[in-house]
Write a structure and sequence with these properties.
A 4-stranded antiparallel β-sheet has the order 3-4-5-6, with no helix packed on it. It has a 3-stranded antiparallel β-sheet with strand order 7-8-9, with no helix packed on it. The chain has a two-stranded antiparallel ribbon with strand order 1-2. The protein is globular, with a radius of gyration of 15 Å. With about 110 residues, the chain is mainly β. The chain is built from 1 helix and 9 strands; from the N terminus they run E-E-E-E-E-E-E-E-H-E.
């Protein structure tokens, strides 16, 4: 599959480089000039890795960017402040498939990337 992106350097829509792994049912978020994609399903396995695309570059390429504690598919990703005093941010991933609301309150299944 091909993915299109708007290239601010050339002021044109271009075909983006492909991800390092084929995947579906991912979560994605734009954070710190990067498009982050987490987990998903590759047709045989649920994935626990993350990939990012540095959208500030004129010719961005996908890079492997760490791993979540468990494979996730059909989950959510959000940007949340780490501290109201320091004002830094991190990416927080919540598995909406197998974590109860009680576990959300206890932050039992949260992975953070910064």
């Amino acid at each position: 599959a091909e993915y299109m992106g708007y290239n601010v350097c050339t002021d044109q829509w271009t075909i983006l480089n492909t991800m390092t792994k084929a995947r579906s049912a991912v979560s994605a978020v734009n954070f710190a000039d990067r498009l982050w994609v987490f987990g998903g399903y590759n047709g045989a396995d649920f994935l626990r890795d993350a990939e990012c695309l540095d959208v500030s570059k004129c010719d961005p390429t996908w890079q492997q960017s760490g791993f979540m504690r468990r494979p996730k598919s059909g989950h959510a990703t959000l940007i949340a402040p780490l501290s109201s005093v320091i004002r830094t941010k991190s990416l927080t991933i919540i598995d909406t498939n197998d974590v109860s609301m009680q576990q959300y309150a206890n932050m039992a299944d949260i992975d953070e990337f910064s």
